Amino acid sequence: MNQLGIVKRHIVRADPLAVERLSKLGVATIHEAMGRVGLMKPYMRPVYNGARICGTAVTVLLQPGDNWMMHVAAEQLQPGDVAVAACTTDNEDGFFGDLLATSFQARGAHGLIIDGGVRDVADLEKMGFPVFSKAIHAKGTIKATLGSVNIQIVCAGAVVNPGDVVVADVDGVVVVPAALAAQVAEAAEKRESFEGEKRAKLAAGVLGLDMYNMREPLAKAGLRYID
Asked: Residue 57's closest CA among 129, 172, 192, 158?
């Protein structure tokens, strides 16, 4: 089946309670709790300091230098969604700016993740509309070629299905499959709790060598201390 020229209007979004729980956790913690999977490539960065995103994915497949499908996607956005955009080939043009952000924000979107370029960054920051992108590029785009909305995409190396949970912070972007959202939230919360206990011990002066029982395996591996 040709995956171009398709807009799926009805998608199954992750459980809102699970999304809310994940929104309070960091990308690194979620990634570790999920078995060290789900990360987008590290070139995906926030376009302004302090940007953070959590929400359910509305996916967009773009054509190079063409942002037509971003306008199509706007209609499918619901409150709490995050637009997640990939391109059929490597492209860094400025697919998105303050006008589209105004439209997305009016729909209740929580932000944009795009494996491509964006512009009008100063305005995006003033609006408080968070964007994570591959590039910042002033180059404009046309509206001439069909892509798709709400199909499975690969964005910056990560598979994203419509309705998945996408979390982004200064450490990167992680994708949590919708069906696993509650399970991952629970595991990540436990990990966060354990990290709090470890942090307290380290702050008290306990060494990681002792807290993690590293001395014996290090000795077995051949580590020698020389005075």
From this structure: 158
Phi-psi region of 205 (alpha: psi -120 to 50; beta: other; left: phi over 0): left
Q: Whose structure tokens read 């982004």?
A: 168
Nearest to 91 by CA among 129, 118, 57: 118
pTM score, whole prediction: 0.93
- Alpha-carbon gap, residue 149 to 162, rounded angstroms: 9
**How, if at all, do strands 165-169 and 172-176 pair?**
antiparallel
99 neighbors 129 (Cβ within 8 angstroms): no
* Structure confidence by residue, pLDDT tens digits, 4-46: 999 999 999 999 999 999 999 999 999 999 999 999 999 999 9
CA-wise closest residue to 86 among 106, 57, 109, 110: 57
Number of CB atoms found within 10 A of residue 73's CB? 30
Query: In whole angstroms, what is the distance from residue 86 CA to residue 160 CA?
Result: 10
58 pairs with which residues across the strands? 83
Torsion of CA 84, 85, 86, 88, to 10 degrees: 140
- Residue 57: which of 118, 105, 113 has the closest Cα? 113
Nearest CA to 101 out of 79, 76, 118 is that of 118
Q: Where are the beta strands (DSSP E) in the chain?
A: 45-46, 53-62, 81-87, 94-96, 111-118, 131-136, 148-149, 153-155, 158-160, 165-169, 172-176
- The number of beta carbons lying within 10 Å of the beta carbon of residue 63 is 19
Residue type, 113: I
Residues 6+ apart with CB under 8 A from 120: 97, 98, 99, 101
